[in-house]
Amino acid sequence: MIKKSRSALPCRLNHQTTRCERIEQASMTSDTLSGWTIVFDLDGTLVDTAPDLHLALNHCLSKAGFQAVPFESVRHMIGQGAKAMIEKGLAFQGVSRASAETEPLWHSFLQYYEANICAESRPFKGATRSLESLAAMGATLAICTNKTQHLAETLIGKLGLTSRFASVCGADSVPHKKPSGEHILHTVDRANGSPDRAIMIGDSQTDERAARNAGLPFVYVTFGYGPSPENWDDTRCRASSYVEVMDAIQSVANP
Ligand SMILES: O=C(O)COP(=O)(O)O
Ligand SMILES: [Mg+2]
């Protein structure tokens, strides 16, 4: 059998740099994001948490005698915090409960989820590398999430990403969570950043509204849980991968 040597590969493969490589090369040589704060939503944007949230939701529902919710439906229940997800899980089976009545379910959810928060949850493809590149380009990184502070910090810690972020701002660490713009502004402030040079990256209408309320440019990632922003058609800032997230950030910061 004749083995193809590397030099026998088409020259396009040998010599043409990929888009990823170009971004990486640029990151090693430039300081183009100095002074910028890049704020990431957590669930559905940085980390694919749906598998573990799905198991935890069904654990608390079945313990209280309710039916399990299928995975695909749970994905669309994420983004407004665990209590909202539990209420949606109940509504899915025609049960309407006042928030106070879901408290016991919430406690059983928290107990299970905290113990299993990183069983299957992983950063989306390219996310970890992009955080490295953004930091190398001088950006300050932050997280603004409707997860509780404790759960957000636990997850980020288990993924080994804590040192990447200047601030992590959970829903219970601010007076008003997303879609309030205050949540993002507090996140930027705690990262010692300025809202004039900050960008919000998120996977849902909640994130887009929060960014608009805070007066920040918004990059929408389409690989998360949605629902997608309404009346928002900035195609330049719509990203279906982390390569596109990086392009969108550059196009906002260095037009
Ligand atoms: O719903 C949640 O638990 C949090 O969601 P978020 O990180 O997308 O804000
Ligand atoms: Mg999200």
Automatic annotation (TrEMBL):
Pfam families (alphabetical): HAD_2
Keywords, sorted A to Z: Carbohydrate metabolism, Hydrolase, Magnesium, Metal-binding
Cofactor(s) named in the record: Mg(2+)
Gene3D superfamilies registered for this protein in UniProt: HAD superfamily/HAD-like, Putative phosphatase, domain 2
Enzyme class: hydrolase
Keyword Transmembrane helix included in the entry's annotation: no
Full protein name: Phosphoglycolate phosphatase
Annotated source species: Henriciella marina
